[in-house]
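Researcher: Good morning. I'm working through a list of sequences from a screen, and I'd like to move beyond sequence-only analysis. For each chain I'm collecting a predicted structure so we can compare shapes side by side. This is the next one on the list. No need for commentary yet; just the structure.
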Amino acid sequence: MARMNDQPERWTQATVYPDMWLNPDDDPRDNEGPAPDGELPTLREAITNYRLTLRLKCDGLDVEQLARRSVPPSTMSLLGLVRHLAEVERDWHNWITEGERLPKLYGARDADFDGAVAEQAVVDAAFADLRREQASLDAALAVHQADLGARVGREGLAIREVMLHMVDEYARHCGHADLLRECVDGRVGQ
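Model: Good morning. Structure tokens for this chain:
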């Protein structure tokens, strides 16, 4: 078990605001200017920014670092979070459709984390899965976004509820990603 002094030294790439991940001019998230007008653009922006945040937390790491379970005894790793969120995107797609449910991507419970091993093919597949599932859910949601109160799927969930749950899920796991990344290589920032 690692001792506190075995942890990497904390650092940030930002120079303008040292508690940030990147300098504002280098940050792909839209954090400057006024917030978007309206509920739908606000929800879309939050989802987009959290998706980008997860990606940023993984940038610059090799396969071993992505797969490292850096906060024992947790089985979480950054790669596991990518796989988990691909599974979550698919699950939400299943919740809003009437048709046949898509099968689990990685198998039984916790397979998304358990299968997050330090192999380039696993890393490449995880990021491809995440991009594909995000695009699929976005397309399914777009059909219904004229009315955020529309009830869809077998459970009759409102589109607003699904989007809010997505923000919640990403926000929670981006917080996990902050801690995991800091323990992997010491990089800090929002």
